[in-house]
Amino acid sequence: xxxxxxxxxxxxxxxAGFGAGATTLALSACGSxxxxxxxxxxxxxTSLSQWYHQYGEQGVQxxxxxxxxxxxxxxxxxxxxxxxxxxxxxxxxxSGSGVDVFENNAIDPASARKGxxxxxxxxxxxxxxxxxxxxxxxxxxDGKIWGIPMITDPQLLWYRPSMLQKAGIAVPTTFDELLQxxxxxxGGNQKGLFFGNxxxxxxxxxxxxxxxGPGFLSADNKTVxxxxxxxxxxxxxxxxxxxxxxxxxxxxxxxxxPTSFNAGLAAITWQGMWALPAMKKALGDDLGVxxxxxxxxxxKQAVLVSQWNEQVAxxxxxxxxxxxxxxxxxxxxxxxxxxxxVGFGFHVPPKTATAASTTELQDxxxxxxxxxxxxxxxxxxxxxxxxxxxxLTDAATRMLxxxxxxxxxxxxxxxxxxxxxxxxxx
Amino acid sequence: xKGSRLAFWVxxxxxxxxxxxxTLVPIVWSTGLSFFEARGxxxxxxxxxxxxxxxxxxxxxxxxxxxxxxxxxxxxxxVTMAVSLGLAVLVNGLPRFQAFYRxxxxxxxxxxxxxxxxxxxLALFSGLPSGVANSVLGAVGISSISWLGSSPFWWIVLVSVxxxxxxxxxxxxxxxxxxxxxxxxxxxxxLDGVSAGFRRFRYITWPQLRPTVAAVLLLLLVAAFQAFDxxxxxVPTNPSTRPPLVYLYNVALGSQRDFGLGSAGALILxxxxxxxxxxxxxxxxxxxxxDRTKAPRRRRGGVRA
Lengths: 426, 305
Known about the structure:
Chain A is an alpha/beta fold.
């Protein structure tokens, strides 16, 4: 029997219903929440979304979720963000929804000037002398303070005393001694130096620019300063050590992970303080730490410092509530700040008094790192844009892997960086 | 009629909305942004005219990324073409177990480029003496190589991982091409004394595969131009192996977040690919295969008329 018009229409209506339903589901899925892990508290009607990147250490997610839950003035949902945190955060800040309070390790002038961050000067100004100058630099743009320093991560050189002793080498005190030690400590399956799988083009070229004296930018953030004869000499020495085969490259893990160093694949490594517990566990007392030695006559020792900071979105659902919460957690609650710094991973609380009262940082290698950081710590600040870091790393990569001329590559990198810096000023 | 019109719109609307919201609006918005400064924001902030476009023409990093693409394409396109065609001919000639070999060779296509890159980086081409490739070299007395840290060895890693991941797909395309060649051609060739071997391939198989070759060539070129995953996983910071899309990602979506510049770059790269596709069509005749077989008939018809 041929279907009647009404039965055809009925079937179509049914299918149409499915279609409409699927559309509704798809559209609603687009706007769904993606990973909130908790909340609670009374809140009094105020809801806040707090963003973290994925910390590798066990227990951090639960701890920050519980911490957020214990904050009574607002209901806080912790967004534990997997994958490319910077891009996801940037998208949310641009869209102006879904993020109220967030951590950020790269506060940038463009976002501050475009009004994506809330100004935290009123929160920070009264207590800013409690932070070191190095801690305040990454959060300060145009005289305003845009974030509360959360944790500080010093990066410097770590070595295996037993390997140096076996080779009859003293702990290097000059830059030339360091690279020479790298060459002499290379043999068999062991390399002398591990500055990353790129041979040090990424991080160690920057350390050289700092240890040679000028750093990256002038004090007024208007001039790129790293192109000096001392930096050229330092990078030339690095290139020579790379050619001599002193660098560990092609390791399964990069410098941020101490596995290769712990396994004895390198005698001296570039590493962050976060890896100290893992290195202590694997190596016991066979571990030493030092700043990058001075490069050339006008340089100074160097410890590079990176930092995570707590910020509030300018388009937060309730900016004042967000600022109040950020202050309560990252300025007032020193106990949790200590726990966050050393209870899971190993970082330094940026508040000087909090660091000074953190028991785990008061002796041994941890204290040495804190002291070296206090003395030689350097951070480029927010005007050292990622594009500039890429230009310097590209130049250093060509020096190491292609044997490119150091002076001309450095000059070209400075030109590119200066153009980028000039564009930031506009 | 009313019912079918309603059903039409119910089914078409979701796709139309998706097309407009996720494709057309972004293209138009991106084109607009390319004439403006837009750092860290999707809102145009300052009109810069063609400044973003001229920036790319003077930026060594961008021109270097195009050089990287050309080098990569010169390596990956002919190698994939030759290996996939060779495998297709071999599989097509198998008297038994053809389906098994076809499936086995196609299987890597289902593997993620990220997973493939990790296997290549951590196991096969690790720079340590314990890596598979270095173990083989060590067995014949050659010292270890830092595969991803030294030129030209990184190209071996980059080309081989993509070859493994995509060769099965192109093999299947060639198999389809081979199986549509009329057996009568081979029978006729046999009568003329061309029974087997290279001459049969040269005079029968290869000319008959021309449409497939043209399609595969274009697909391989486009895939090479869009190469991203293995580069970002294997050689993320090396400027000598930074293809255009990785460069563009760093500018627009990575840490720089310069959407004005990124939009201009996206338009330039699209224009380059359109030109490449048009040139390819002009010289190799992608999509004109059927027309080619008809063309002589039209000419003959013209003579008869």
